Amino acid sequence: MTPEKSVIAYINHLIVSNFSYFWDEIDGYLYYLGGTLGTITLSSLAASVAYYFATRPVPEQPLVPLENQSPLLEGPEQIHVSKFYKESKNGKFVSYITENVRTLYQTFREGAYASNNGPCLGWRETLTSPYQWINYDEALLRAKNFGSGMLALGARPKQLIGIYSQNRPEWILYEQGCYSFSLVVVPLYDTLGPDACAFIIRQTEMSIVIVEDDGKAAMLLEKAPRSLKIIVAIKPIRQTTLERARSRGIQIFSFIDVEKLGAKGNHPEIPPAAEDLCTVCYTSGTTGNPKGVMLTHGNVVAGVCSVILQMGDHRIRAGDVMVSFLPLAHMFERCCENGMYYVGGCVGFYSGDIKELTNDLKMLKPTVMPAVPRLLNRVYDKIQNDISASGLKRGLFNMAMRAKEKEIARGVLRRNGCWDKLVFKKVHQAFGGNLRLMVVGSAPLAGNVLTFMRCALGCLVLEGYGQTECTGAITLTVQGDHVPNHVGPPVSCNAVKLVDVPEMEYFFQSKYGRGLCARLKCVPWHMYNPSSTIDSSYYKDPEKTAEAIDSEGWHHTGDVGMWLPNGTLRIIDRRKHIFKLSQGEYIVPEKIENIYTLSQYVNQVYVYGESLKVSVECLNPNTFLTHPSRHHFRAAL
Ligand SMILES: *[C@@H]1O[C@H](CO)[C@@H](O)[C@H](O)[C@H]1NC(C)=O
User: Fold this and answer.
1) How far is the CA of 299 from the centre of ligand 1 (A)?
2) Which residues, listed in sequence order, are joined to residue 119 by a DSSP beta bridge?
């Protein structure tokens, strides 16, 4: 018998003899023992027992007292803030970590220094090639050249420049190129659709857009508003597209050409100030035109810094490798990447096909990964599927989960224990094997999936809650809190208060749900507009601004939350998109969607509702076609 097999046999013996409460102490020891189990002698047993107890994992101290994670400000409104807010000089929102690093122009240069010009941006040519990297100094030089090139093409500081591309190194060169000359980043993306993209170009009077490839250039040309004058293409463009552009009076340049143009012109940099507009980030609403959220450099730096602080001892640092696959068009990914560039870590881009993510992860071996529930639900579902076939596997898995849960509850964070190596190794490997930090955001994550990921990955898994209007994170769970089903205390650049939602019968004072309202107060994010009023927070849209932001400056998130006794926030509902069923129950389509996406039969789900009936349509072509019973999922509620 191999050592691992004998350990498994021993574990099964334990299951049978119901000794599982023993596990807390002996699981770590067992693994160590596993290696010697074949040729065990009494003295080596004694020595290994001694060795184990000498190297026993030591629990970590939580970042905040777990029973009181967010202090309250005085007053009847019950405003919750982060511990860092309370600890800072007479109570202040955190807007930066170092006083002289307050723009995304400065954070990137700080990272170049911190990493000692280490690797910065990585990509692979094909799915079989390794990652190649450019260092910070080269990235900075190319970014500066690209920015200088945009100036040569007629861009002027504070002008809005669009980008329509998947994540790739050029995205960051463009982004930093913009910051080098106080230009403003405006991402366009597929899910907006052609009409919304045209709307954005028109609303911002954008004249330059960077596109990834021919298809995206062609799409823009189809509905190009008159303001559009120049398209910069990262990949080659077809002749027909070039001709079509010419006939519309639009010039097309290649990305490299713009870099060369900029190198020749060598325009001196025009760095932005913290109050300058950094980005206009459009979010697609359910109805009507998209809203352009205006964020200053100060806003984004505050958002990034407050998340870094909330990570405690596990914060990102030089030497970290992050995988980039979530869309850079959203603030979640933008904040994560800019955090990495701030501390001098490096970012490796996925190959562009989400189906090949595992391949990329195995090659990149990231230490840090932002993730979304959809991805983790798939992993969870796959593992559940794997273990359901065999009673032995299932028993082992459940024991491993119980033991890891206990370990995590004690504050022990590791992935080299007995259970990690025995049961969860495959999960580690699927994520590259080096992961030490995962941040989950953008949608609600089921508690059992979160706990599973924490156990299976053996690394710190944080869940955040945020909105573009608040520069990303509003709350983030802290290291040491292993309990799922909440999104943690506020981060230090935001304060959170709850207000009544009478139409849903949620009252601030009542025991259950309460309305949620989050305010961003670190840097007035309206500063960019000279008439600096609250009206200006959505780009040229005072009406929608008035809907979302009240007279005191609180941004109403539209989510409904409640405070748990230990000062963490739980999101329990959504104000909009609700159906009230005939029996008087409220149905939240997202909730149903989340449940259905847990199933292996479901790839995409669409919930349609009239207040009397809600139907769910979903299908996963892969499992659907191969599964013998061929259910068609169609449920009426
Ligand atoms: C926080 O409070 C909730 C609700 O009372 C509880 O279930 C959870 O265990 C607490 N979290 C911690 C880390 O103690």
Assistant:
1) 31
2) 135
Is pLDDT larger for residue 578 or for residue 296? 296
580/586 Cα distance (integer angstroms)? 4
Nearest residue CA, atom 3 of ligand 1? 564
Alpha-carbon distances, residue 446 vs 153, 376, 387, 508 (angstroms): 49, 10, 20, 25
Decide if 253 contacts 153 (C-beta within 8 A): yes
Q: How far apart are CA 370 and CA 336, in angstroms?
A: 7
Distance 477 CA to ligand 1 centre (A): 12
Residue 130: which residues within 8 A CB-CB, separation 6 or more? 124, 363
Which residue's CA is the nearest one to ligand 1's atom 11?
A: 483
Cα separation, 173 vs 466, in Å, equals 26
413-416 LR contacts (CB < 8 Å, sep 24+): 413/60, 413/458, 413/459, 413/460, 413/479, 414/57, 414/458, 415/457, 415/458, 415/459, 416/458
pLDDT (average), residues 525-537: 36
State the DSSP string of 356-390: GHHHHHHHH--SEEEE-HHHHHHHHHHHHHHHHT-
Q: Return the domain boundaries, the chain.
A: 3-55, 104-112+122-272+320-326, 579-636
CA 518 from centroid of its chain's CA atoms: 19
For residue range 331-346, list pLDDT tens digits in order. Answer: 999 999 999 999 999 9
Torsion, CA 158, CA 161, CA 165, CA 168, rounded to 10: -40
For residues 494 and 491, give the distance between their C-alpha atoms in angstroms, rounded to a whole number.
Answer: 6
Would you tell me how many other CB atoms lie within 10 Å of the CB of residue 156?
11
pTM to 2 decimal places? 0.83
| CA of residue 69 to ligand 1 center, whole Å | 11
Residue 623 pLDDT exceeds 60: no
- Between vectors from CA 147 to CA 144 and to CA 151, what angle results, nearest 5°? 135
Helix 391-409 and helix 447-457: axis angle, to 10°?
Answer: 90
Tokens of 314: 């596990």
Span 560-568, average pLDDT? 88
Give residue ranges with CB within 6 A of ligand 1: 66, 481, 483, 564-566
* Distance (Å, whole) CA 106 – CA 100: 8
Sequence-ordered alpha helix ranges (H) in 538-588: 542-548
Nearest CA to ligand 1 atom 9: 483
Going by CA atoms, what residue is nearest to atom 7 of ligand 1?
483
Distance 488 CA to ligand 1 centre (A): 11
User: What is the residue with the minimal CA distance to atom 13 of ligand 1?
Assistant: 481
Helix (H, G, I), strand (E, B) or coil at 227: coil
CATH class in words for 104-112+122-272+320-326: alpha beta
Q: How far is the CA of 566 from the centre of ligand 1 (A)?
A: 6
Pocket test for ligand 1, best of 564, 568, 569, 572 (most atoms within 8 A of CB): 564
Q: How far apart are CA 316 and CA 304, in angstroms?
A: 11
Number of other CB atoms surrounding residue 374 within 10 Å: 13
pLDDT at 33: 37
The 10s digit of each residue's pLDDT in 115-148 is: 999 999 999 999 999 999 999 999 999 999 999 9
Name the residue at shortest CA distance from atom 8 of ligand 1. Answer: 483
- Atom number, ligand 1, closest to the C-alpha of residue 568: 1
More confident: 270 or 6: 270
Distance CA 161, CA 336 (A): 22
